[in-house]
Specification:
The complex is a heterodimer. By secondary structure, chain A is an alpha/beta fold. Chain A folds into five domains: 5-221, Rossmann fold; 229-386, Rossmann fold (3-Layer(aba) Sandwich), CATH 3.40.50; 398-490, Arc Repressor Mutant, subunit A, CATH 1.10.10; 492-540, no CATH class; 593-813, no CATH class. Chain B has five helices and 16 strands. The termini of chain B are far apart. The chains are: A alpha/beta, B alpha/beta.
Chain lengths: 813, 221
């Protein structure tokens, strides 16, 4: 063992570590503890909650498990179930199980380890409840489920350590909120449990520490390990497209990269991209490389199979969505490619960290932009990465729909006192400011639905005696467990090929297809055969131009930090070694219009073929831009300018109208937001869409389980109708309130927009142009492409329009 | 009154009007034909632990009263599943119960019993399993080899794309000799009109008429 005298530690502590079998085994493998691991052990042994904030591959798992393993002999005296390990990703659970088992066996220790997820058989689950293992590895959802058991307080009473892995991936999300509520509850009956959270790249460690721990004694351990990364942007002589999100121009380049490396992961932003890239690579796969695909819609056995092959080093390349982002430890991976814009710094760090996972090796990554603006975003990201800057995490208050689910879960487990539960909920950091009034509304909703008409008092979900509540009957417990969780996906239908389940696909996509229509799924071209009770049956197809599922949920908003970095880059473009086509594009933009200013707003107006266009370079991200686009449309309508349509990207918005709108400088004021927003929202599907997920999480309507949909069709009805009726008769219902609050603050970016409008009001550059500008080509093309593919109302082809627009922008006759 | 666009169809040698609220008016007999109402569905689901807004019966009957007030009606034919379950009528609140009783007194009401209905019925309605008048048949669930037939049961709905939005709404299905009405109740799901089952039930090709707030849209399959 190394010398740790500089840490000034107690000798008995050092001796205890030194003499342990684990240490011997690690040393034999030439692994020596880092200082921070020793310090983590010390803090945990002193019963302090800790947050270990370090990049992936720096040995956090060992740091977290030192205390549970080294102190095991004493811990076990008061109860055999000592450690609960919670990880947000299923595939990670198997990974940790594997390496932990190696470690225990190698050190010749007698510690039993088991996993528990949705895939665990009910026989095994029952057995675990009767005789729990020493260490249990599980997901936040399975943990919540266990907390709803009648004897949860006894089951967890002697727990010594709770490890929360990958905290950064769930912090300030509804999944995280549910976890904090359960952690708060568990600390009421196992006060001696010490919490150990592991996280990568969190800037605000104080907030992160508070998020999972309400203990007085807690510290953050920063190992100050910096993972070296080497990032480049794909070099290509091909033309980088104006718009779109498919890397068709770069497939050959991508292929030659993966040929050069042992094993590569290609990360994409959407499932549609993953299917496209996978297909395109196989089409040119002359060297018969082993290329696989991995995304969340694939069947779990397929996925596990691929993961195992990757682990065993049998694959050259794997095309993956965020389903592979988190800490899997694959030693073989030596290259990461990112297709499309990174969208946020934390995310890209996480992805790049997959290559050369060990902390002392350099992670190699190649970014592949799919259009010109994405090129700038990739470059800005590269810049930030080299400077080792982390993004802020935005604090959010805990979801009240999640609270409803939690209250229901507590009721399944015990008879609770409302005052005590309220106090306990407030101990969870995201709920620290919860008012009693809101708590009561949520409780009331769980109890009888919370309607003004007391229609449902006869059927109440909870039994009430004095101020104590418990679940009314056993069937409600089953119902709660079926519906547990905070992830609401769109409705999914299972896909079967000759009785073999390939995975699940979005209901709305598959319903658009006719028999024999082809589509890409699980890396194959399939044709629709028929719908059955089980799901949809497909055949292998030889069709050449399959439709691609346009999966929802892939549109991650651009982070504010990165958006600012892009603007900064454009401003200082001269300091960068840009490819000729990008440089030319920026220079021409500067010459013909202006570059988007920092802390200001560039607005361009021009007339093209008798139609008036307004283009605003807001860099606000898609969600906020969409809202702004809608509001501007309304404003134009009020001024009788006859607006036609608008389109929004992460970077800009374009609005077209029949008549010219002349008061550009007065367009962006507070009035735009105050008056229009709520009226507009009520006329969109955003509220209804969000209401559905709130209603499912809160337990108003049931989750639809894939495959069980068909036979229920007549009794299932759209949540839109429920929303309409509720909005008509009981506007102040708690679920309507939750929906509106969340939509305003999170989805339409009201906060962001208000700040934006206050900032730019007096700094608007308005350029009235004779023709389209080079920067505007991208957004105007999005405009046309949407119309062409979705409405088929324009007779001429996309390429022609593109060429025309470019000619106009570049002044080519 | 706002102008509502109706669709006139010729079926079994008679003229009928399809209304955007999901009902059918038969002018010559001054008759209103209604698909499944599923009253008290929300209170049924509340027993199972889902607390849907308890306003569905009110909303459905309010919709019906508006239609009745705007038309010259003598007879109302309910095509079954008027209540969602057999105890529904016991649960409905007094005001709405009285409204239903008054309706049966004011109009000649044909109350066809569906698979969901219980034994409790309003006093003045004519209760039956099927009904026939002027060679036209009314049943809850379509039967084989019967022509000139109106039925409910399946709750057909259809989806249309409106700009970028998808709208899914109840839908009339009109075959050569059979018509299936959409569910009339507000809290009712449905089977998509392109489902294979409808070709079988309607014994051949059919057209659809999607109900929007104030108009109908024709759909070909």
């Amino acid at each position: 063992m190394r010398n740790y005298t500089h840490l000034n530690l107690d000798n008995t502590l050092i001796d205890k570590i030194k003499s342990h079998k684990l240490t011997n085994w690690l040393n034999k493998k030439f692994y020596y503890y880092h200082d921070y691991q020793i310090l983590s052990y010390k803090a945990v042994s002193q019963k302090k909650d800790i947050l270990i904030n370090a990049p992936t591959g720096s040995g956090k798992t060992i740091a977290a498990l030192m205390a549970p393993i080294i102190n095991f002999d004493e811990d076990i005296k008061t109860g055999s179930f000592t450690t609960l390990y919670i990880s947000p990703l299923k595939s990670l659970i198997y990974d940790i199980n594997r390496s932990l088992n190696d470690c225990i066996k190698g050190s010749n220790l007698n510690i039993s380890i088991e996993t528990r997820t949705g895939d665990t058989t009910s026989y095994k689950k029952q057995k675990q409840l009767k005789k729990p293992p020493n260490f249990l590895i599980t997901t936040p959802e399975s943990f919540a489920l266990m907390m709803s058991y009648e004897n949860a307080n006894i089951f967890f009473s002697n727990i010594k350590y709770i490890v929360i892995d990958e905290l950064h991936s769930i912090i300030y999300t509804k999944r995280g909120d549910l976890l904090t509520l359960n952690l708060s509850r568990i600390s009421s009956f196992s006060p001696s449990a010490t919490k150990i959270a592991l996280s990568a790249t969190i800037k605000d460690t104080k907030s992160a520490l508070n998020y999972f721990s309400n203990s007085k004694y807690k510290i953050c351990i920063n190992p100050n390990i910096i993972k070296k990364v080497s990032v480049e942007i794909l070099k290509t002589s091909n033309f980088i497209p104006w718009y779109g999100h498919m890397p068709s121009y770069a497939i050959e380049n991508i292929y030659s990269y993966i040929k050069k490396y042992k094993s590569a992961i290609i990360f994409v932003n959407t499932r549609a991209q993953s299917e496209y890239v996978f297909q395109s690579l196989w089409r040119i796969n002359k060297d018969k490389l082993n290329i696989a695909i991995h995304h969340g819609s694939l069947d779990s056995t397929l996925r596990q199979n691929i993961e195992k092959k990757m682990f065993d080093g049998l694959l050259n390349c794997i095309v993956a969505t965020s389903s592979l982002e988190l800490g899997l430890d694959w030693k073989n991976v030596d290259l990461v490619m990112q297709i499309g814009a990174p969208k946020g710094i934390s995310r890209i760090i996480q992805r790049i960290g997959r290559s050369n996972h060990a902390v002392n090796k350099v992670s190699e990554a190649v970014l592949v932009p799919t259009n010109k603006f994405e090129y700038l975003e990739c470059l800005a990201a590269k810049d930030v990465l080299n400077k080792n800057i982390f993004e802020d995490t935005e604090e959010k208050t805990g979801g009240l729909d999640v609270l409803a689910q939690h209250i229901n879960g507590v009721a399944c487990s015990v008879s609770f006192n409302a005052n005590e539960l309220y106090q306990n909920v407030k101990l969870a950091w995201p709920y620290r400011r919860l008012t009693r009034k809101n708590f009561n509304s949520v409780l009331n909703f769980v109890h009888t639905g919370g309607y003004v008409l007391k229609n449902y008092n006869l059927f109440s979900r909870l039994k009430k005696s004095k101020n104590f509540f418990s679940i009314a009957n056993k069937s409600l417990i089953r119902k709660y467990r079926m519906n547990l969780g905070t992830i609401v996906e769109s409705e999914m239908v299972p896909v079967y090929l000759k009785n073999k389940k390939l995975g699940i696909i979005e209901d709305y996509f598959i319903n658009q297809l006719q028999k024999e229509d082809t589509f890409l799924f699980a890396g194959q071209i399939l044709s629709l055969d028929k719908f059955t009770e089980k799901g949809v049956e497909v055949k292998i197809s030889k069709g050449k131009s399959p439709k691609i599922p346009s999966y929802v949920g892939g549109n991650l908003p651009l982070s504010t930090y990165l958006a600012n970095a892009v603007i900064g880059l454009i401003e200082n473009y001269k300091n960068y070694n840009l490819p000729e086509q990008i440089k030319h594009w920026i220079i021409l933009q500067k010459k013909q219009s202006s570059l988007p200013p920092r802390n200001g707003l560039l607005v361009e107006t021009f007339i093209r073929k008798d139609i008036f266009y307004i283009v605003c370079y807001t860099f606000l991200g898609r969600n906020a831009n969409q809202t702004l686009g809608m509001l501007i449309m309304r404003r134009l309508e009020e001024d009788n300018c006859q607006p036609l349509a608008f389109t929004a990207s992460d970077y800009s918005i374009a609005i077209s109208s029949v008549k010219e709108f002349k008061k550009i400088k007065q367009l962006f004021n507070k009035k735009l937001l105050d008056k229009g927003l709520i009226t507009w929202l009520n006329n969109t599907s955003i509220l209804k869409k969000h209401f559905k997920s709130v209603a499912i999480i809160a337990g108003l309507i049931d989750r639809k389980l894939p495959g069980k949909v068909k036979s229920y069709k007549q009794t299932n009805f759209s949540s839109d109708i429920i929303y309409d009726v509720l909005e008509k008769y009981e506007k102040n219902h708690i679920l309507i309130k939750i929906t509106k609050d969340e939509v305003l603050n999170n989805l339409v970016g009201l906060d962001k927009l208000t700040k934006f409008i206050n900032n730019i009001r007096y700094k608007i550059i308005h350029n009235n142009l004779k023709s389209i500008s080079p920067f505007a080509v991208s957004i105007i093309m999005e405009f046309y492409s949407e119309k062409i593919s979705k409405e088929k109302i324009i007779s001429y082809k996309e390429e022609n329009i593109e060429q025309e627009l470019v000619n106009e922008a570049y002044k080519i006759d | 009154m706002r102008l509502i666009k109706l669709i006139r169809i010729n079926f079994a040698n008679n003229f009928f009007l399809l209304l955007p609220d999901g009902s059918i008016y038969w002018p010559i007999n001054k008759t209103l034909i209604l698909g499944d109402l599923h009253l008290e569905k929300s209170s049924f689901l509340a027993r199972l632990g889902n607390f849907l807004p308890p306003y569905d019966s009110f909303e459905t009957l309010y919709k019906l009263s508006k239609t009745l007030n705007n038309l010259d009606v003598n007879k109302v034919i309910f095509l079954g599943d008027i209540f969602h379950d057999k105890d529904g009528m016991k649960r409905i609140n007094n005001k709405l119960h009285n409204y239903l009783e008054n309706l049966c007194a004011k109009y000649q009401v044909i109350w066809i019993v569906g698979n969901h209905d219980g034994s409790l019925k309003p006093k003045n309605a004519k209760i039956c399993i099927k009904y026939n008048i002027d060679d036209i048949n009314f049943v809850h669930k379509s039967e084989k080899n019967i022509t000139n037939e109106f039925s409910g049961h399946y709750h057909p709905k259809a989806t249309v794309k409106f700009f970028k939005k998808k709208i899914s709404r109840p839908c009339f299905l009109v075959g050569k000799s059979k018509i299936i009405l959409p569910a009339y109740g507000v809290f009712t799901g449905g089977i998509d009109s392109s489902d294979e089952i409808f070709k079988k039930v309607l014994e051949g090709d059919y057209k659809g008429y999607l109900t929007l707030k104030e108009k109908l849209i024709k759909i070909d399959f």
